[in-house]
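Interim report, section 4.2 (structural modelling).
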Amino acid sequence: MKSRQVQLVEYPRGSVEPRHFRVAEVDLPDPGEGEVLVHNTFTSVDPGMRLRLRESGPEGYFNSFPLNDAMDEILTVGEVVESRAEGFSPGDEVSHAWGWRDYSVVKAGEYSLGGVGTLRRLDTSIAPAVKFLGPVGNMALTAYVGLVDGAQVKEGDVIWVSAAAGAVGSLAVQIAKLRGLTVIGSAGSPDKIRYLLDELGIDAAFDYHDGPLVDRLREAAPDGIDVYFDMVGGDHLQAALSVLRPWGRVAMCGALSEYESPEPQPGPTNLFQIVANNLTVRGFRASAYLHRQPEATQQLGAWLKEGKLAYKETIIEGLERAPEALQRMLAGDTLGKTLVQV
Amino acid sequence: MKSRQVQLVEYPRGSVEPRHFRVAEVDLPDPGEGEVLVHNTFTSVDPGMRLRLRESGPEGYFNSFPLNDAMDEILTVGEVVESRAEGFSPGDEVSHAWGWRDYSVVKAGEYSLGGVGTLRRLDTSIAPAVKFLGPVGNMALTAYVGLVDGAQVKEGDVIWVSAAAGAVGSLAVQIAKLRGLTVIGSAGSPDKIRYLLDELGIDAAFDYHDGPLVDRLREAAPDGIDVYFDMVGGDHLQAALSVLRPWGRVAMCGALSEYESPEPQPGPTNLFQIVANNLTVRGFRASAYLHRQPEATQQLGAWLKEGKLAYKETIIEGLERAPEALQRMLAGDTLGKTLVQV
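Predicted structure of the assembly:
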């Protein structure tokens, strides 16, 4: 059997472009003992993938993608076609980490993406399979853990979430609202700001293109903020450190501003504010908090059913357009979760 | 009555020099109701003072020193000469925050230096008064809180302490050893390295002048570190972030590398390691943890009496030499706690 997969042919310097990838047709072995054959339906496009499109990425992070080979460890959902693994049957809807291809042979129990990507049958009574790449999946876990463990939010806190119209950000702002926080969001276009204010109903929002970030933030939060949910790093983190109140917290999730820089970017010049105001900056990866997955899935699944949680997806059709989807997401041209329909 | 005090005449750009200060003779009022007159014996010289020698310092930090006026809020010990405050009598040894002068009129109960500097009678059964500017005073509290609350150290952790031969660092490395950690220290001269290894008995030490910091750190800690006690910032913090293991912690106490820079210095280029390895960076100021003062004083006082704690002081004699003492300390030319004997 043949399978189509996206392969990286060159590590991009600067912006990601479709020319850095190709679609290859490869032989797919029959599933062996303990394996299943999955027909993938949706595959994920995540900002953090950019860090793996480098010959050597951050130490301790997921491995770099190899050149001219399958890009492993990308979250995906699909339907089991054939199973030689106990507990999985044809027709089961599953998630796994062998995405950016149309069919995958997946070993049951094989640990991947820090556990997040391990083959798992989906409970579609909670939500349709595709939502397990979003509001009841890893995005949910990331937003939930960022607030609960990363920032240790309390009712009444004033929180700023950057990249707030994105997959994680749009969940984080809504969970924060549901937990009784005052929520400020930032994003990169007027459409996104309208979405945040009108559809997600957060308290204040601004476009980071509109003049000095720290001024916009101070306007939105005249008395300062208690929490910054950082998806961007760089100038965003610098602004947050200036505006965080004593005992403030930063949940550090990503650094979008740096992902496409060919050279390492210097950090904020005002890190001393961490000392001056007794701040805590905590980095976190959802994969390190898998014990939270059941509660995050249940909680967000319930809110989703009750209509308390809005969730947008930008779906690009066709496996061959996955690189274009990544390019558009990194350029800020997508809203909510970016997905490829295989 | 006349009193001599050191005054700042110019905000230094770059290195601090004695010419930025002068000694002024001023009239000292008689102590009013609730006040005491103190003859100061030792006055403190702290790295953080450098941040207050700027027209505008970090937001939320202690106020900048004014020009041509008394430099308030500097820790000092002395003896009460005259008291009009309940609970204080002539001959009492006290600490307060109205240093860099020979005599001070101090209001009992007046909150200063975040509480640390509030007038306090010293229990000299624990240690001589001068030690309350060091191993049983604010330095002790800083080292103790940095380990306990900032870094939340556990037995078995591998810790790196920068500026380890300084007032806080030399206590931090010893407390860490006494708590069962593996301790690596860095400092800026062969003498200091010998002191760390031979007198304080830590596990490894290196001079930060000896080639790439990250290489020296990796040699000292081939399996990485769990905790970094940061007194330096800049390249030291960058090296720590590269070598910290998953779930590592940074207790951020100061940023010596930046204090004398006329321009704001960029932060490390590898802050993403905070995300990649689920790190926590916690800034702290001793003054925010005053509830720890009794236990820190008791614990360190006991260790000091038992001979388990070594402590060096560099004492410069003469109030007029306080600026020189500060200059030398910032240049790394002093060992242990830097003090001025008034």
